[in-house]
Amino acid sequence: MRKLLFLAGFVIFNTIVAFANQFSKQVNYSDSLIPSLFINSLYHFKFNEAFNQIQKSKNNSNLKSAIYELNYYWWQLITSNNKEYLIRCFTSVIECNYGLDKLENNHNCNLYRIYIEAFRLRLFLFNKQYLKAYKQSKILTKNIQTFSKLYINNELNYLIRGLFELFGSLAYAKYPFIFNDSIYKTLSSQTGLKLLEECTKSQDIFIKTEALYFLMKVNLEVFQNHREAIKYSQQLIETFPENIIFKYHHLNILLNLKAKEQAKDFKYQLINQVRLSNLTQMQKQHLNQIINQLKN
Length: 296
Description:
By secondary structure, this protein is an all-alpha fold. The chain contains 15 helices and no strands.
């Protein structure tokens, strides 16, 4: 259950991120919630560059800088496993809510509040607070269903629908007494896969990356279809060659495919990449640890 709950929670978080960014564009805001320049800095492991953007944002908006910090600290957390960053993430959630309280309570403000609360869900999952995560995921699911109906025929809706069709149906199939809302009975994993596959053709880098990532994850961890999973991990590491987390998943797939020589070479290159990177010593130590923990 933990794996499916984690995936479901991660889905909820990322669909809200995507919706928030795309919604900002469609209502012609001058700035989106999380600009692509900042997101790309994180995807490409340019953390110093991302940090500089945080400092610049502090001159404009307390809310924006808090959202920047929340995402920055998350990537610091998953690359180092330093629980100090978990605390900073929770603190940033509080600061985000404080910033929102100063704004006029309107449709867009409510959307951003959902995004921030979804990040709180992500932190619960990371911290293995599964009961809190489950309760919050049910609330957020209802909210996303409402928002996703606003735009029917676009890539964003395909991403949201695809993720919910896929992981919702998997959750219901395995735990029907837990995921017992009527909506889960109508979902189809095949429909979800088709919609996500369509999203991999998107010109929007965020939508494309999210689709590739979840198709990789579900084929690796749920379906255990490693030949299918490597198609998506290959695209991810080609697009973001600096992203050691994506490469970690690619190595895991190679090992599951029993491609021993290829995996051996890739692992050597990956460890060397960690060594030569501009990451902190703690990050390097953690990344080397999780890479070496993969079973040959």
